[in-house]
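INFO  loader      accepted 1 record
INFO  loader      residues=122
INFO  predictor   begin
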Amino acid sequence: MPHLIVEYTPNLAGFAADDILAALNDTLIASGEIANETDLKARAVPVETFRIGNQPAQRAFVHAQLRLLAGRTPEAKRALSDRIAAVLRERVPRPTGVLVQLSAEIVDMDRDAYSKEKLPAA
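INFO  predictor   done
INFO  writer      dumping tokens
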């Protein structure tokens, strides 16, 4: 905890997944809402099969989901969502003729149902 999952369509030429994850991690850690930077696990997942609406127009999306243990205020969650959206707006490519949709979602994880363990290095 927390887990950041960024899904994106592969028709976003120039999508620099590693750079975007680094910028997202930086802004989330700077928020003060992440107690230990080693707890933030981020990954980018290309969505190979997708449809956006029902028209043949060129369309793409990037959706970021931040999963956190429950307990933050709505204001804190909104601030995290805004931070994620700002990074995406700044860094997601805008290919000519492609409608790109960005979204960010904060999801509460049930504390009682979550387990985690850190294994020491061998």
